Amino acid sequence: MNGLQAYQRVNTQTSITDADPHKLIQLLYNGAIERINMAKARMQAKDYAGKGQLLNKAIEIIGGLRSFLDFEKGGELSAQLEALYDYMERTLLEGSAKNDPAKLDEVLGLLRTVKDGWDGIRQEAIGGQAQQAAV
């Protein structure tokens, strides 16, 4: 492992250790987006094995996002997000099988939209956690 990879691994581990639940979800969104972008580059370079590994990791991350859904508190929104995550996973698989960067771009757009919404509620989420801790 080179120095840059070692730094990135330590930096990622530190971010995860120090992260609140809201920040962990942000890190997952960032990780999925990063893996898909890297997979697009591997696809263009005709490194299909590398592309496949990166897309598998992105699909695992999306599965992780799905596992955080709270259907009791989230209700209909959680159900809609679950369906969206399922669609993203299937679209990534199709994009990988057909080497179709447009499919990857479609999922990137969806992830960025959901991530933007999640980022937009950061202060509200942190405020709610502080209030719960005070009770």
Automatic annotation (TrEMBL):
Organism lineage: Bacteria, Pseudomonadati, Pseudomonadota, Gammaproteobacteria, Pseudomonadales
Listed GO biological process terms: bacterial-type flagellum assembly; bacterial-type flagellum-dependent cell motility
GO cellular component: cytosol
Organism from which the protein derives: Marinobacter persicus
Keywords: Bacterial flagellum biogenesis, Cell projection, Chaperone, Cilium, Cytoplasm, Flagellum
InterPro entries with a match to the protein in the record: FliS, FliS_sf
Family stated for the protein in its record: Belongs to the FliS family.
Matches recorded under Pfam families: FliS
Cellular location(s): Cytoplasm, Cytosol
Protein name per Swiss-Prot or TrEMBL: Flagellar secretion chaperone FliS
Domain of life, source organism: Bacteria
